[in-house]
Amino acid sequence: MLFLSQIGEEVAKLLELKAKLEDVAEVGKFTLKTPKGTRDYGPQQMALRNSVLDKIVSVFKRHGAETIDTPVFELKEVLTGKYGEDSKLIYDLADQGGESLSLRYDLTVPFARYLAMNKITNIKRYQIAKVYRRDNPAMTRGRYREFYQCDFDIAGQYDPMLPEAECVKIVSEVLDTLQIGKYVVKVNHRSILDGIFEVAGVPDDKFRTICSSVDKLDKLSWEEVKSEMINEKGLGESEAEVIGSYVRLNGGRDLVDKLMVEDTRLMASKKGRAGLEAVALLLQYCQLYGLEDVVKFDLSLARGLDYYTGVIYEAVVLGGDVGSVAGGGRYDTLVAMFDPKHRAVPCIGVSLGVERLFSVLEARAEADKKLRTTEVEVYVASAQKNLVLERLKLCKELWDANIKAEHSYKNNPKLLAQLQHCEEMGVPLVAILGQDEVARGVVKLREVVTRQETDVPRSEMVNEIRKRLQSMQKQ
Amino acid sequence: MLFLSQIGEEVAKLLELKAKLEDVAEVGKFTLKTPKGTRDYGPQQMALRNSVLDKIVSVFKRHGAETIDTPVFELKEVLTGKYGEDSKLIYDLADQGGESLSLRYDLTVPFARYLAMNKITNIKRYQIAKVYRRDNPAMTRGRYREFYQCDFDIAGQYDPMLPEAECVKIVSEVLDTLQIGKYVVKVNHRSILDGIFEVAGVPDDKFRTICSSVDKLDKLSWEEVKSEMINEKGLGESEAEVIGSYVRLNGGRDLVDKLMVEDTRLMASKKGRAGLEAVALLLQYCQLYGLEDVVKFDLSLARGLDYYTGVIYEAVVLGGDVGSVAGGGRYDTLVAMFDPKHRAVPCIGVSLGVERLFSVLEARAEADKKLRTTEVEVYVASAQKNLVLERLKLCKELWDANIKAEHSYKNNPKLLAQLQHCEEMGVPLVAILGQDEVARGVVKLREVVTRQETDVPRSEMVNEIRKRLQSMQKQ
Known about the structure:
2 copies of one chain form a homodimer. With about 475 residues, chain A is α+β, with helices and mostly antiparallel strands. Helix content of chain A is about 45%, strand content about 20%. Chain A has a 9-stranded mixed sheet with strand order 1-4-5-11-10-9-6-8-7. A 5-stranded mixed sheet of chain A has the order 13-12-14-15-16, with helices on both faces. In chain A, strands 2-3 form a two-stranded antiparallel sheet. In chain A, helix 2 crosses helix 13 (about 355-370), helix 6 runs antiparallel to helix 12 (about 270-290) and helix 8 runs antiparallel to helix 9 (about 235-245). Chains A, B: It is an enzyme of class 6 (ligase). Chains A, B: Keywords: Aminoacyl-tRNA synthetase, ATP-binding, Ligase, Nucleotide-binding, Protein biosynthesis. Chains A, B: Belongs to the class-II aminoacyl-tRNA synthetase family. Chains A, B: This is histidine--tRNA ligase.
């Protein structure tokens, strides 16, 4: 332990020295920016994001989900050994005394930690939060070091394919409600892949690495993947060919039925058979959910993460370059990694690629330019000078009646400037006060779009505004 | 630069060695917990938090606010020199190559950075996000290292007290809507304090430190504060007494009027006079907003932060031990610290103490036990075995009609268990399917509270459910 602390001291000294040198070097050249790979979200972006997330959350709530939240950082050990090669992308906090901490890398591992720690054996929850990856950001392609994840998971010991089918249904409802365009949800089963590897004669200890190669089929051709299997992973030509004969298959229930009836080789593998039976049941349930045109059994789907143990799926937008917008699968052993007695809590989840969805919908919104950043219903304007006190009184009346209202923070703003603000911000109504209106006990109610103005007695103003807003909403 | 990179390499080698040794040392003694000073929020807590935040956001929106978001970490230099002594509480990220980063300490400094960086000169925005402080957490008193802040700010060059009055109005609307109990909003002005110090003969360079002493009057007696001023800060007895004669004053517009008419000493100070005139105007505006019973001019209010330049305020719940639940003030020079040309953007803001509000409302909710964690409207139950496919079909019908529904993920759940789940989770309606109901084309609709059951034809089910839900909502 002495040795350890000595190293610690040396490191601290060197780091201090380094910091000093850098401080000197950097004084005066402090650039005003957000950290690499991060960004601010302005009012426009937030308005879009919140409207998208509201729609997604309403789907989750329609399916009875609760929500939880976990800290942005975890003990370093919680994340250790969960992400394989990607562990190098984890952000660590500085050692300022106390525990070793890391920023969360996804929401799944903290969720599993939460379940184990609180001995929760069943829950249906969603969580929307930012995660952190020290990736080389390719920000033009929508990849950041800080980004939102939006996860829905079902934990619990349940009967086969019932939670799976609901996850697929949720993905499809989300994509429908966002009107993202035509899409398919590809499904596969880890046991089918294992069965194929068994049939092909791949040694057990190569299952995972060969699975990773298969996972690349969405970006590489079969020839390229085959060459990786043979040249990099040491598979024989004939084994690779057997794999190739399977992973190029895709279809619907007919394909499952065909394999179950005709492929005696794959059905002879216990894993292969179990996987096929599971997918057959999943497709039956999906059909009852009206998803037969959306779900596609795709044997090339492998998914990168090691922790999947059953059904896996991925939603892909067809046409254009949007690509994958949701993915997930069953992970029955992750919670057990955190439980002192290694008790398993079976889980299945889906993670929506909200950043990608945001970009697509942002581009679309920019074309439309219709998105408002505030919800102001009435702007209180004055037509002449010295009416600020009257404006304040009017604002109070509106706020007390739960009408969204604002006014200028200038004593004597110009009427034209006030009306322009309303046009820019999309405020539908203006309540205009002049000395004449105050004396007569009325406000001039102006519809911004039509520019129609009507005098309304103050006593009827709130009701009149409500009526106008309702009729505008219906249009 | 060679020297720098050599140090970097040495550090990396030593750190790697240290990490290896620690890995070995720590295997097996990993405790399952969240980091010190942090916590998970379970479904109950999240349901409460979201309902509280929804109410707060609806107040912000009623006043026409937009929202923005900033990264959870900033360049270290952005935070440097903004928090005085508290800078030691800032969390730094580990040096993993690249920029020096720190977790945000509040939302105000990132907001100022955002304004300067984007050259925004006026905005009315709210932001709700977590901030990080390496404080010694006293978690029983509701203090954490990771906690929510909820800020509303108005930036822009406006006429005196118009934004100030609206901030006070917003605080009062939030506290009213949360039914937190009786409260006052104390207001004061930094210039009045400066005027008092001037009148008392405090040297200029002691204004800030004496201001900090005054700030302690909410926790310490005047005698204790006076002793600190004299013994620790080197003020004379008579100077302290003059300060004491002021900071023990509080009242309404009458007090401001009295000081303006009678206190020729304070009115002779340019700062004192300007501050009093400002507060007089603010109180007039607040009266128009119906806040005369809520706002109190309190000369002991000082607020800790250095960056305030004008009106300051703090909302305090009366009676009980809740204390301060909101605070803020004007800070006209913070944005200039980030602008290369030091252009100022005047700002005023309020930060709601949402964690304290959560604790109070959480305690209250626990007493009530009424809070639901899901919004499920109909539970789809089966009364006999082998009805899972029928349940799936029924769920689809309900979801497609935008009715919030769930069912058991077990093939053959017991009816009693299904009904118990509904009672526990507060689900109002159950749609029960038996073989008989399926054959007759009906569902048995059960109201959970009354236990009344009625057979409803499938074709009328959705309408009947909507009708029932509406009439339940009205009760």
